[in-house]
Amino acid sequence: MAGLFTFDFRHRYRNGLSTWLVAHALLLTFQCNPTHVQAETADWEFYIAPYAWGLGLDGNISHGPYHFIADASFSDLWSDLNWGGMGAFQAQKGKFGILVDGLYVDLSDDVSLTNLPLPFPVDIDIVNKTSTGLLAATFRVLDRPGGFVDLMAGYRYWSIETDVDISVPIANLDVSEGADWHDGQLGIRGHANLSSRFYIEGMALTGTRSDRTTDLTAFAGFRINDCTAIMAGFRRISIDYRNSLYRFDATLHGPAIGFSYKF
Rounded to 5 degrees, what angle do the CA atoms 46, 48, 51 make? Predict the structure, then answer.
């Protein structure tokens, strides 16, 4: 047993983002004017891409002597998301581009431990807040009618906070620990057209400062028109950060659905 106790808790996902994404994608489809877009973006092309992420959290979180195991399976994604916001913005001119990607999730869970050698249960409330923002420059090393390949280099900000409230009949114990840091990023992104409507796209990034951070994304997309496309895929972010008292070694992962709009 690590620390004073070890237990499993599950983070699962539930909200109306999917409905919101579909409604806005349909609205932007009817607003598309390809002639206007082409005239206004002769030099620059801009894309926005909000998305919903069916988030799971697996790994280990340590607070000094306390050690917690996070374990969420694919079937457990539909609960305990307090709030989440995800999206990306891209600007492209010729071979050069700028990518901004942001993510914030607020997850909570509560556990009642009844199998301890105590005459009363121990109630534990856990809140984990994770946010990250990426600013990256891209350079197109391959550009063909069938797709492209970009090299990426940039900067990412991380912020992680875990709050644990342990309640017993005679007292409460609040434990709060977190960290924020800056991390250089290197990566690659690729896009391949399967037809005039369908395409696939992937991105891989790794950190240069923290012990281990990776961001892997794969999507399949369908172009509704020259402005709007809908996408579905999978994203996996691994984080291994530690200092003298705190360690966050976990993976955020799950299916994602969204749309992109060019203007």
Answer: 160
Structure tokens at 14: 């539930």
Residues 206, 55: Cα–Cα separation, whole Å: 20
pTM above 0.90, yes or no: no
Q: Are the CB atoms for 56 and 72 separated by under 8 Å?
A: yes
pLDDT tens digits, 90-111: 999 999 999 999 988 877 766 5
Label residues 34-70 b or e (16+ Cβ within 10 Å = b).
eeebeeeeeeebbbbbbbbbbbbbbbebbbeebbbeb
- What is the C-alpha separation between 35 and 114, in angstroms, rounded? 66
Q: Alpha-carbon distance 52 to 14, whole Å?
A: 10
pLDDT tens digits, one per residue of 120-165: 566 677 777 889 999 999 999 999 999 999 999 999 998 988 787 7
